[in-house]
Write a structure and sequence with these properties.
- By secondary structure, the chain is of the alpha+beta class.
- It folds into two domains: about 55 residues, Structural Genomics Hypothetical 15.5 Kd Protein In mrcA-pckA Intergenic Region, Chain A; about 200 residues, Pseudouridine synthase.
- Helices cover about 25% and strands about 25% of the residues.
- It has seven helices and 16 strands.
- The strands form four sheets. Strands 7, 8, 9, 10, 13, 14, 15 and 16 form an eight-stranded mixed beta sheet that branches. Strands 3-2-5-6 form a four-stranded antiparallel beta sheet, with no helix packed on it. Strands 1-4 form a two-stranded antiparallel ribbon.
- Helix 1 packs across helix 2.
- It binds uracil.
- The site of uracil has 10 residues, from helix 5.
Length: about 260
């Protein structure tokens, strides 16, 4: 049966439909030996030799859901033009073509979901669903209540205010630095770092500690594990809720601004 290439690639777990379009446009997809860049192209997954970066794409694949604790010093992509280590390098023994859901900065640590379930990945990153992400940010100086309120209300970044956030001082300690727990529902470029910078408390170290319902304090940096079926169910529920019907439609047009 002839299907659009984007659909074949997303069903095979290679990429979300949106990411598949990028793969096609960048000339990384071939059908029976011919590179395809045309978006409407159809093919038959049962008969045609469909490849991404030379690797054969087969029928719908078993979905895998991996929770990785990314250490600082790794990029959140499958391959890096600067040849820095990637999060995929940490998944030794995993043979499926998996990709990270959303991004963490090179210097950021913490929880990252890596999967080949393109539909779930697209939902989790879509602003319409507003799936929460919680971060612990060690910041310079000691933010006061006024700083915390500004962070909670939203900070103008690139001409658009960030959505209301939950912000708490988590480890009140002596010394010159504090840790803030910041929970946000969007994923704008270097968002937590830029928010803290804007209130005069630059981030010294940043770690993601929760993605929607997923938390795991016992997972050491550089380690990963499969999600349990119950965690996958909870994640699906979180990624199905619509938290921002109106603003989501507007923000969907500006998704290119993610980290
Ligand atoms: N906010 C940031 O500033 N960086 C990240 O990696 C994630 C959220």
């Amino acid at each position: 049966m002839q299907l659009r290439l984007q659909k074949i690639l997303s069903q095979a777990g290679v990429a979300s439909r949106r990411a598949a379009e990028t793969l096609i446009a960048s000339g990384r997809v071939s059908v029976s030996g011919v590179t395809v860049r045309e978006m409407g192209t159809k093919a038959d997954p049962a008969r045609d030799d469909i490849r991404v970066d030379g690797r054969r794409v087969r029928g719908p694949e078993r979905h895998r859901y991996i929770l990785l604790n990314k250490p600082a010093g790794y990029v959140t992509t499958r391959s890096d033009p600067q040849r820095r280590p990637t999060v995929i390098d940490l998944l030794r023994g995993v043979r499926e073509y998996l990709y990270p859901v959303g991004r963490l900065d090179y210097d950021t640590e913490g929880l990252l979901l890596v999967t080949n379930d393109g539909e779930l990945a697209a939902r989790l990153t879509h602003p319409r669903h507003g799936v929460e992400r919680a971060y612990e940010a060690r910041v310079a100086g000691v933010p006061d209540e006024d700083d915390l309120q500004r962070l909670r209300r939203g900070i103008p970044l690139d001409g658009r205010r960030t959505l209301p956030a939950e912000v708490a001082l988590v480890i009140p300690r002596r010394g010159a630095e504090r840790v803030l727990r910041v929970t946000i529902r969007e994923g704008r470029t270097r968002q937590v770092r830029r928010m803290c910078e804007a209130v005069g408390h630059p981030v010294r170290a940043l770690r993601r500690v929760r993605i929607g319902p997923l938390e795991d304090r016992a997972l050491a940096p550089g380690k990963w594990r499969e999600l349990t079926p119950a965690e996958v169910r909870r994640l699906r529920t979180a990624a199905t809720r619509v938290t921002r019907p109106a603003a989501g439609a507007e923000a969907a047009g500006s998704r290119g601004t993610r980290r």
